[in-house]
Write a structure and sequence with these properties.
Length: 321
């Protein structure tokens, strides 16, 4: 009898050490944040348009949440969320990409895994239906980080991703913006997602059609690691949206991580410093998740399409402050 009690006591002690030591429970949680562009969206916008944006953000967030809830990786969650955005013409990515000055579409995307800092990106693709998925293949199937232009399109053909004619990306809303040089909503379009999974791995991804009427060949921050996308399991993951040239010049995504790493900032302190001190008002925003699952959605514009969900039951989507 005494031997049996001792065995049960030993088992209980081992289980207690495993489940209740600091940090272990946190590793069984998840957090996911998303954005669909920052800029100006009038508060009195038509109700049906507002509901369309909020419904789409909700669907995207649920896609990632389900993957993470079921024990899936942050990499899969980020890719699938962004693929959804790329199929939704409400957003400036994939099907909803804006027009260049030549009346065509050039798309950019990047993805980064915080576990080992592996990255993949594509810029200026014209025939890739889901740039984020090609960016992942660049990361997983090539020795390189960034492919651009015709070479990136050919790589997509080689890997067998979905190929479309450039006109596939045409939408009436974007055509009207380009043709009349008039923007109903001044949203500095880009979509992004950052997540930490139950294993504590952080992934960040970003995808965009760029700026309306941009010069042919122009590349913004979205496919540039350190500028528009960054992830490090030791600090945080970041995806940005805004005026790409400013995000590039100020190395926005990486600097959030750097402030945490070298100055011991919290995620909140780091995110607010880069958005409110490094960048001028009206230039954009970021979404971020740190190694403990804390999150920030910070912007210096009047609005940012965004959402967050985590294993503690938080689930919300917003447009304005």
């Amino acid at each position: 009898m005494k031997i049996t009690i001792k065995i049960y006591s030993a088992v209980f002690l081992i289980l207690s050490l495993f489940f209740f030591q600091p940090g272990v429970f946190a590793q069984n949680k998840y957090t996911i944040v998303i954005h669909g562009g920052a800029g100006y969206i009038p508060p009195d916008m038509p109700k049906e348009i507002k509901e369309a944006y909020l419904n789409s953000l909700t669907k995207a967030l649920n896609i990632g949440k389900k993957i993470l809830e079921e024990g899936g990786s942050s990499l899969d969650a980020v890719e699938q969320v962004i693929r959804y955005f790329e199929d939704d013409s409400l957003f400036n990515a994939g099907k909803g990409a804006v027009f260049t000055s030549a009346g065509t579409h050039e798309l950019d995307a990047s993805i980064m895994v915080g576990k080992d800092l592996t990255t993949g990106a594509v810029a200026g693709v014209k025939t890739i239906k889901h740039p984020i998925s090609l960016a992942r293949l660049v990361m997983e199937k090539t020795p390189h980080v960034l492919f651009a232009g015709e070479g990136a399109d050919k790589l997509g053909e080689r890997f067998g991703v979905d190929i479309v004619d450039n006109k596939y990306f045409d939408t009436y809303k974007r055509f009207k913006q380009w043709k009349k040089k008039h923007k109903e909503f001044d949203v500095k379009g880009t979509v992004g997602c950052v997540a930490i999974d139950k294993d504590g791995n952080i992934t960040a991804g970003t995808s965009t059609g760029g700026l309306t009427d941009k010069w042919e060949g122009r590349v913004g921050d979205s496919p540039l690691i350190n500028a528009g996308t960054y992830a490090d399991n030791n600090t945080c993951g970041v995806s940005g949206t805004g005026t790409g040239e400013l995000f590039i010049r100020n190395t926005i995504a990486y600097n959030v991580s750097a402030l945490m790493k070298f100055k011991n900032y919290t995620l909140k302190q780091a995110a607010e410093e880069v958005i409110f001190k490094y960048l001028p008002e009206g230039s954009g925003g970021i979404i971020a998740v740190d190694k403990d699952g804390n999150y920030q959605l910070v912007f210096n514009t009047s609005s940012m399409l965004r959402g967050v969900a985590n294993s503690d039951g938080v689930f919300e989507v917003k447009i304005w402050k």
